[in-house]
Amino acid sequence: MRLIRVKLEKIKNKLYIKIPDLLAESLHLNQDDDIEISVHSQLTFAQGSLWGDNASLEDIREIEFNISEDTYTLNKYKRLYIPEKYRFFLPMTNNGFILSTNVGNIRTKMTNNGYISSGLIRWFQINGPLCTDDEIAIRIINEKDHFFKLELNKVN
Prior knowledge:
Layout: E1 4-5, E2 7-11, E3 14-18, H1 21-27, E4 47-48, E5 62-66, H2 71-77, E6 80-81, E7 97-101, E8 104-108, E9 115-116, H3 121-127, E10 135-142, E11 147-153
Parallel strand pairs: 7-11
Antiparallel strand pairs: 1-4, 2-3, 5-10, 6-9, 7-8, 10-11
């Protein structure tokens, strides 16, 4: 079982769950489909299970995306922006995880607004500056230990 983060949205005073598009596409979900969600009583828990043990999402071991157009912010503040549709892949906000990189292992976390921001100064010194269309790939090394591999494919 994998845990993911879902977003609650209030529409006309009712709460609805927003499932990341990547997951909905992978599961071929349509309107009125039933899914199973585990709700935990722990206040700090913000994720739910959206698939069973045999589902194809277990096979999602890597995400890839291009650097956003706001490269100035990324380069100035030494942080990586994770697009919303990929945030389910990493541990929930403020839970630490480790990124294996070309400059060594980095202990970091994701902020509320989707940035990986701590511990990246040395990584940016070696790999920066980032440019629009550079590609980021993040792959699971050990899900249980929150250990991921970060790779950068520079366009220029």
